[in-house]
Amino acid sequence: MSWGNYEADVPGLGEGAAMISGLSAETDKVADDFISDMATYRRWAGYSDDFYHQVNPKYQANNDMCVSMLRNMSRAYAALESATLGNLRNIEGAQSYAQDAIDLQQSKLDSSPDEYGGGRH
Question: Residue 41, Cα to own-chain centre: how many angstroms?
């Protein structure tokens, strides 16, 4: 980028958004699968004995932390996708507006002859 110019990698932003788009759903699926798998192991420490009361709170806290982290990652991916797509739309809009303004000015120059010949210098 040089001074006074704004350059954006529009295809790169589009590709990035496409790559991000599935990550939120995939992360939610991992969390859902993890929760489902936890049910298989929930009773590994017993039900109500001392060992259960000693290890289960930490086991449950670890599982809850993993699920929370996955859900937060999912929200982060969704927000990143939304922001990337928003930036892409803004850039495309600015490009379109600029091109329309250039085209309008060009048509004015082409249709307004002056002493220099056709409005061109």
Answer: 34
What tokens does 14 get?
A: 């589009």
**Average pLDDT, 10 consecutive residues per value, the chain (121 residues):** 75 91 94 94 86 93 97 96 93 84 86 57 52
Residue 22: name the closest of 80, 64, 69 by CA. Answer: 80
- pTM value is 0.71
- Between CA 27 and CA 48, with CA 68 as vertex, the angle to 5 degrees is 120
Q: What share of the chain is helix, strand, coil (3-state, %, to 5)?
A: 75, 0, 25
CA distance 40 to 47: 14
CA distance 34 to 28: 10
- pLDDT at residue number 63: 95
